[in-house]
Amino acid sequence: MVHTLKQEDLKQEADPSLKARKFVLWLFVVSSTIMFGGFTSYYIVFAASKGKGHGLVLPDVFMYSTAVLVLSSVCLFLGAKAVRKQNIQQQKMFLWAAVVLGLGFGYLQVDAWSALFQSGAALVNNNAAISIIYIVSGMHLLHIFGGLGIIGNSLWGAYTNVSHEKAVYRIEIASIFWHFIDILWIYLYVFLLLNS
Amino acid sequence: MAVIAMGLSILFRIQLAWPDKSFPILETFLGKWAEGGRIKPDFYLALVTIHGTIMVFFVLTAGLSGTFSNLLIPLQLGVRDMASPFMNMLSYWMFFLACIIMMSSFFIETGPASAGWTVYPPLSALPKAIPGSGLGMTLWLASMFIFVASQLMGGINYVSTVLNMRTKGMDLWKMPLTIWAFFLTAILGILSFPVLVAGVVLLIFDRSFGTSFYLSDIVMGTQVLPNEGGSPILWQHLFWFLGHPEVYIVIMPALGISSEVISVNSRKPIFGYHAMVYSLIGITILSFIVWGHHMFVTGMNPLLGGVFMITTLIIAVPSAVKTFNYLATLWRGNIRFTPAMLCAIGMVSFFISGGLTGIFLGNASLDINLHDTYFVVAHFHLVMGSAAIFGMLAGVYHWYPKMFGRMMNAKLGYLHFWVTFICAYLVFFPLHFLGLDGVPRRYYAFTEFEFMQKWVTVNIFVTWSAIVAALAQVAFLFNFFYSIFRGKKAVQNPWESNTLEWTTPVEHLHGNWPGEIPTVYRWPYDYSKPGAEEDFIPQTVPYSQTMSSNMPHDFEGNAESERIQREWDAKNAPDKADVHFH
After folding, report:
1. Does residue B422 share a domain with residue B529?
2. CA of B158: which chain A residue's CA is closest?
3. Contact B201 A135 (CB under 8 A)
4. Do B195 and A16 touch (CB under 8 A)?
5. What ipTM is given for this predicted complex?
């Protein structure tokens, strides 16, 4: 026998699930960090046992893409500020800027791959340390696409006039994730720079 | 899935026992994989691979933490639903999809993956290596990828629910040990499964794009492969960094379930509740720094091997703490031998007998002899196979009334338990001796070698025991499905248990509790408390209603409560006041 709960019963308790769901995202951040930890520790053990790293001068494009990604994070931060002040116009502007910069980052990453490829450092390579540059930046790019989706969700909210509470929740989710992949990329980039 | 995996094991046991005989019926079912009624060597490898994969991941991981976490976390913590029900649903359907993909590999030309459940490269990385390395391996990788995603979504949900959504009064130290176990298991999963994903991604690139992460210096037939510079040992590192925590992901829920079942049915508080929790935490942490003990013979630096040996042996400490606590809980308890209780005791038995051989294998020098022999097979089938399965059975028998509102037949339960318990020992115990004699695992027909010929009689015995054990599962399956419809109607709290799930009505309703969620006032193990009217006090009963049985430590130093209790004792029970409060 299944019967549904009365609405009054539910209202008595404050909804703890928003907090719990935000926590879910933090846990995802942790597990994603561990995955990239797996890649970079592969690199460390590989480099230590073979006595060589990727041995490349990374293309400059990576530097530009990093700058673009940081800028995009700044825009998202300003966008979040606008949400808290309930300034829909500014929110839209900054979030669009963040999305465009995010797409720009994706373009620059692909550009960097082609620069790598043209310099002779292809994905299919007898030095696995070079192959893994493609793998980590590729897996990171997948995260970027996910992040763009989440920002898009917040942006969609701005056009459909969701409640303030919900808008704040969405922008918080987007901020946690986007800043995370920003920092993640900086970690990966610095890691690759230091371990050439 | 468990039934399928068991069926596979019976198939290869038949091959091991009667390598020369032909069973025409096999050809009817398996077609060209058993031409002339004899299982082919390639298919034998596929059988052991898929048996291992299904049992470890799809049965013991998903079946224990997946099902029981979803059942018990909300019910025992007083939650209406999980943190993200949507993610939970996604996790369920992705698991289903992973099952389908894994099983579909039986229906393709080249057969399922055959590189062992650890899928070591190069066998797994070169599609042309053996028939099973082809499409079967691709399906295996796809299935595991989805499976890991499903596990992560489930695990993240469990942790978030446990930390954020407990009912009023339910602080962490009032949680039943089942929840502690599920919680720590989920944390283990979150921290270790992503590493497997990293490894699998690299493996997929090696297979399909021609990179050399794990490959080097390979000649196939007369052809020299271009791949160079990689190392298959790196896969082993990444795999076992998940693989070892994985065995604790399997066993910890079983330990948690047993704690609860043993305490309830001994009518005694669990012995050493805090020690139980700390040893679970200890196991969780230690399990991340022992993976090297699977790799002692890979040419590892002996010093590093020594480090892994020490960490491995240290894990015996929390495990032993748990074992002794179980025994101490049983000691002079008022034991009720329900089927669930028998299975929980069986779980402790297997945990001891399988755990002891772990100490042999954990020694880097002894492992040189024992590595990849049947000794290892015997060890893990007892300690994580049988023990975890019995933990799972204990859970099913114990919470069946909660799941279906009816009781399972106890007599069939006893029959099932005793036959399974005895046969499991008859199957796995003799394998130790094969291993000590140097019989390697995963061999198709090792009794064809002269020095191992003598083991063929033991193989026949083991196979018959396995068949009897499999038949005993029919009793369980019949009991399970028959009782859903025809079982005796359950009362609300059939085992007279303290935990919150038994305060919900027998019939299911969305949101678990009609009206308000109950508040928790005490820990879950107040069984047979001196001075209490009954031999159990549910967690929802406040101390003000049990003045005759309260102890000084119940108040955790709250001076006001102690004063009230002292006054009550002075008036109603002068003897007790003397004993406890002066």
Report:
1. no
2. A24
3. yes
4. no
5. 0.87
